[in-house]
Specification:
The structure is a single chain. By secondary structure, this protein is an alpha/beta fold. Helices cover 29% and strands 27% of the residues. It contains eight helices and 17 strands. The chain has helices at residues 7-19, 35-51, 62-70, 78-81, 108-116, 148-159, 198-205, 254-257; strands at residues 28-31, 56-59, 74-75, 84-89, 93-94, 100-101, 118-126, 139-143, 168-171, 173-174, 177-178, 186-191, 211-214, 216-217, 223-227, 232-237, 242-247. The strands form four sheets. An eight-stranded mixed β-sheet has the order 3-2-1-4-7-15-16-17. The radius of gyration is 18 Å and the shape is globular. The two termini are 15 Å apart. The model has no long low-confidence stretch (mean pLDDT 94).
């Protein structure tokens, strides 16, 4: 129930709740991955059940697909949808230009493919995700398992010439084994501290053999919806140059808050 939510979870919830106002009947909707995106999927599911909203969801991970089906959203593949009207997803960091770091949940490849196949990308986040300069959150880089240590060494070598504070890369683990993405790849987390030129770094990383994709989302996000623990919501549209603020009241909804799977 909402009364049991921490301030940060309340912030995630109100951002997710406001973001579904962008969804209209008949849309193809990209469904992000992560804790904030899970709130959004729950909100959409409630609209499907209670309001008869008809949408097709394109999930960015197997766990998002499972949650979407659980709450009653029709799930299709990107190949079936062909194009997406709007994608709503979370972020690990975002800056004033709405550039992002994503991939903390390990779904950055599918997330970037889905986001770039969309007419509009909306990011939902709590206020703590906003930064002046990207890089405090470790930057995920998806690599193929074959020769991953070589890819790691090459990345660290290239980082020496980049405008970053740190050059260390670590293999993401799941217990005693490497974390494996839905595509069967590994993730290297780059501990950079600060990224001076995100555009350049994104291009350089994707030229390194073995790298599949990186977690820098540059010039992809159109709108960010920022939630606060007191129910305040701020919506920034970078294309329109507008900022709107309001406040959402918490309503106890059993269907929305029970058995939430992150």
């Amino acid at each position: 129930m909402t009364g049991e939510l921490s301030p940060i979870d309340k912030a995630k919830f109100v951002a997710a709740k406001r973001s579904v106002d962008f969804v209209e009947d008949g849309m193809r909707v990209g469904l992000g991955t992560g804790s904030t995106a899970a709130w959004m999927v729950r909100c959409l599911g409630e609209m499907v059940r209670a309001d008869g909203l008809k949408i097709r969801g394109i999930p960015t991970s197997t766990r998002t697909a499972e949650l979407a089906k659980e709450v009653g959203i029709e799930v299709v593949t990107l190949d079936e949808a062909r194009w997406i009207d709007v994608t709503i997803d979370g972020a690990d960091e975002f800056d004033g230009n709405l550039n992002l770091i994503k991939g903390g949940g390990g779904a950055l490849l599918q997330e970037k493919i889905v986001a770039t196949a969309s007419d509009q990308m909306i990011v939902i986040a709590d206020a703590g995700k906003e930064v002046e300069t990207l890089g405090a959150f470790p930057l995920p880089v998806e690599v193929i398992p074959f020769g991953w240590q070589t890819s790691k060494s090459l990345i660290e070598e290239f980082l020496i010439s980049m405008d970053v504070l740190g050059q260390d890369a670590s293999l993401r683990m799941n217990g005693s084994r490497p974390f494996v993405t839905d595509e069967g790849n590994y993730i290297l987390d780059l501990h950079l501290g600060r990224i001076g030129d995100a555009h350049q770094l994104a291009m350089v990383l994707n030229q390194i053999p073995g790298v599949v994709e990186n977690g820098l989302f540059i010039d992809i996000c159109d709108v960010v919806v920022i939630g606060f623990g007191d129910g305040k919501v701020e919506t920034r549209d970078i294309n329109e140059g507008t900022v709107a603020a309001d406040r959402l009241d918490f309503v106890e909804t059993e269907n929305l808050f029970t058995d939430l799977k992150d």
